[in-house]
Design brief:
Shape: elongated
Helix content: 55-70%
Strand order of the largest sheet: 1-2
Number of strands: 4
Length: 140
């Protein structure tokens, strides 16, 4: 900031003095809700375990079926994508809830997690489109 052609007093302290790129991010989560952290951790853990168990039951049900129509194949693939979805995001979120002062994630780890999440989301959209087309062909 310049006043009348001269830099203002104290402006040098307010300037950003970082010299390198960001190497890690600090995930704080629900840092202001300290009294609810354990309850939220338990709720998210139970929901995560139920999701994992449900997807595993779909795998077992499809494996026990002697004749596998295409829709069962698609359901198995959808279950696998959902399993990967939850394994990409939830463990780091649970770790963030369990840590008292937050956790750090590297910039590369954050980029990898975001890439996997977006790729799985796109794959799920294509799979749902293929499932709907399969139903359309079966009906018509």
């Amino acid at each position: 900031m310049v006043r009348g052609g001269m830099p203002c007093e104290g402006c040098m302290e307010r300037d950003n003095m970082s010299t390198g790129a960001t190497t890690e991010f600090l995930l704080l989560g629900f840092s202001e809700l300290l009294h609810l952290r354990v309850l939220l951790f338990l709720i998210f853990l139970i929901v995560h375990l139920v999701t994992l168990a449900g997807n595993m039951m779909i795998f077992v049900a499809v494996a026990m079926e002697p004749s596998r129509p295409p829709m069962l194949f698609f359901l198995c693939q959808l279950s696998a994508i959902e399993l990967c979805y939850t394994l990409v995001i939830v463990p780091k979120a649970l770790l963030g809830l369990a840590a008292a002062g937050g956790i750090a994630i590297s910039a590369l780890g954050c980029a990898a997690q975001m890439h996997l999440f977006v790729a799985l989301g796109g794959t799920e959209c294509f799979l749902l489109a293929a499932m709907s087309y399969d139903r359309y062909v079966a009906i018509c």
